[in-house]
Amino acid sequence: MRHPLRQAFWGFLVAAIGAMGAVVLFMRNEPMDDVWLALLGGGSFVAMPIGLVWGVMALLAAIGEARLRSGTTRIAQWEVSPADWEAFRTLNTARATEGPGLAGDYAPRPADGRRVSVMFSRRQVIVDDHYSPLRRFAVPELMWVNWLDRPGLPECLEFGLLSASESTSVRTALRVPVPAAAREDGVRMFHHFQRVAPKPKVGLAFRRPWLVIGSSLGVAAVGLLVAGLAWLLQRAGHDDDALVFVLALGIGTAIAAGLIAAMVLLIVRPWRQRG
């Protein structure tokens, strides 16, 4: 986010306009055309929450940016030369096309002969005057950290970010160039945010496949036992719809559990883990 304080102003302005529209709507005594009533009412009650959320988020970002710029929360800082910055811009554009979720979170501006400043705190970064939080449960949310090392190009920190749009989640990547002179600080930031980023969770089937297989086979055996008992009762002359349901349920449970055991056995191949 660039200029978060300005963004906060616009957000609160939108909320204020929405509130004014709602006040006018409720205080008006004369009847109003249904179309204008719908437009004024709908616009006001949409503008207020959107503007308020937008403004609060931007204001929090402005506070974080101000603290980072003042040095209060800063833990690392370096500058990128114009030549390295232009090489980074080329890398950033190419990297964005290499896969899903790698589109750039911001558009790096041309250097135009200036040195670009990078500042890190424990939870935020400012690069090329673009401010972004780097933590869990933020907007956007930090998901992963990577170190890019391409021959002939500046090394980069790469942060995977997750934000939400109106209908779905959006995954982007924020890349920060690390010049040779700042490599030690860059590596330190990599390890710092690697500890902060969420760790991928390995499913139980991969961690303890024999437990899953054994449990599934146990459930399958119980299903077969229940189905067998229902079948024996039917053969003994107990003609009841409930027995038909129990028989079908037992067979279905046994089949489903057996399929789970077979899938884990074929996909995970737990005997290789022991070997």
Distance between the termini: 51 Å
User: Can you name the CATH architecture of the largest domain?
Assistant: Roll
Report helical residue fraction. 55-70%
What is the CA-based Rg, rounded? 29 Å
Protein described:
The chain is α+β, with helices and mostly antiparallel strands and 275 residues long. It folds into 3 domains: 4-70; 74-196, PH-domain like; 204-274. Helices cover 56% and strands 18% of the residues. Strands 1-2-3-4 form a 4-stranded antiparallel β-sheet. Strands 5-6-7 form a 3-stranded antiparallel β-sheet. Helix 1 (4-27) runs antiparallel to helix 2 (34-70) and helix 6 runs antiparallel to helix 7 (241-268).
Label this structure with key terms.
275 residues, alpha+beta, PH-domain like, four-stranded antiparallel sheet, three-stranded antiparallel sheet, 8 helices, 7 strands, 56% helix
List the helices and strands and how they pair.
Layout lengths: L3 H24 L6 H37 L3 E7 L1 H14 L20 E6 L2 E4 L2 E4 L7 E8 L6 E10 L4 E10 L4 H14 L7 H4 L1 H27 L5 H28 L1 H5 L1
Antiparallel strand pairs: 1-2, 2-3, 3-4, 5-6, 6-7
Helix pairs in contact: 1-2, 6-7
Concise summary:
This protein is of the alpha+beta class. Helix content is 56%, strand content 18%.
